[in-house]
Design a protein that fits this description.
The complex is a heterodimer. By secondary structure, chain A is mostly beta strands. Chain A has strands at 4-7, 10-13, 19-25, 33-38, 45-49, 53-54, 62-67, 70-75, 85-90, 97-98, 102-106. In chain A, strands 2, 4, 5, 6, 9, 10 and 11 form a 7-stranded mixed sheet that branches. A 4-stranded antiparallel sheet of chain A has the order 1-3-8-7, with no helix packed on it. Chain A starts with a strand and ends with a strand. In chain B, the strands form 2 sheets. In chain B, strands 2, 4, 5, 6, 9, 10 and 11 form a 7-stranded mixed sheet that branches. In chain B, strand 4 and strand 5 form a beta hairpin. The termini of chain B are far apart. Chain B has no helices and 11 strands. The chains are: A mainly beta, B mainly beta. Chain A binds chain B through residues 1, 32, 34, 36, 38, 43-46, 49-50, 53, 55, 87, 89, 91, 94-101, and chain B through 35, 37, 44-47, 50, 61, 63-64, 97, 106-110, 112-115.
């Protein structure tokens, strides 16, 4: 199975900060990668698919990049509603696998 | 409005069975795949299975952790997906989500249900 490793596991940031989360695959996954945001007690929400395509309705401060084994999710200016846990998911090969999550907390 | 609603969760003893339903509305259910994702208390997300749309054969993929114990199905006439869970183990305790899964050009989970909690305990 392809392992997805996110870093950092958690981070503290302030409103207005630029935040970058990375996801590394144990083998190449082309651009078959999506990003999800989850708030406590809620279902995850799709942010990015195809590594860099913004899901409809998602603010443009979210962006994704990368291909192959290394991917990034960037929040250009962190807003209060962005404090949450973020997950990457590869759908290149079965079993599909999530990263372990990155918790973004208020500094 | 696209909606997915899981039901059927609850408390089950180890070795027993439960069946979850994912009732959908607001879209053409038959055109989409359905994936199931679970989240153990305080843990991350785990993909456990995917059933393709009938156009793509309706075939099913399973995670190793549930293969042979869980089965997925769909009833396109009712716009409902099912997760049959047999031989439950305490490690199956989790919130279970169903997701709408487009799988033609890109694959992703664009809509999620609210989740249903399954607790396996004696």
């Amino acid at each position: 199975a392809i392992q997805m490793t996110q870093s950092p596991s958690s981070l503290s940031a302030s409103v207005g900060d630029r935040v970058t989360i990375t996801c590394r695959a144990s083998q190449g996954v082309r651009n078959d990668l999506s990003w999800y945001q989850q708030k406590p007690g809620k279902a995850p929400k799709l942010l990015i698919y195809g590594a860099s395509s913004l899901q409809g309705g998602v603010p443009s401060r979210f962006s994704g990049s990368g291909s192959g084994t290394d991917f990034t999710l960037t929040i250009s200016s962190l807003q209060p509603e962005d404090f949450a846990t973020y997950y990457c998911l590869q759908d290149y090969s079965f079993p599909w696998t999530f990263g372990q999550g990155t918790k973004v907390e208020i500094k | 409005e696209v909606q997915l609603v899981e039901s059927g969760g609850g408390l089950a003893q180890p070795g027993r069975s439960l069946r979850l339903s994912c009732t959908t509305s607001g879209f053409s259910f038959g055109d989409y795949g359905v994936s199931w994702v679970r989240q153990a208390p305080g843990k991350g997300l785990e993909w456990i299975g995917f059933i393709r749309s009938k156009v793509y054969g309706g075939t099913i993929e399973y995670a190793a952790s549930v293969k042979g114990r869980f089965s997925f199905s769909r009833d396109d006439s009712k716009s409902v997906a099912y997760l049959q869970m047999d031989s439950l183990e305490t490690e199956d305790t989790a919130v279970y989500y169903c997701t709408r899964t487009p799988h033609i050009t890109n694959t992703y989970f664009d809509y999620w249900g609210q989740g249903t909690l399954v607790t396996v305990s004696s």
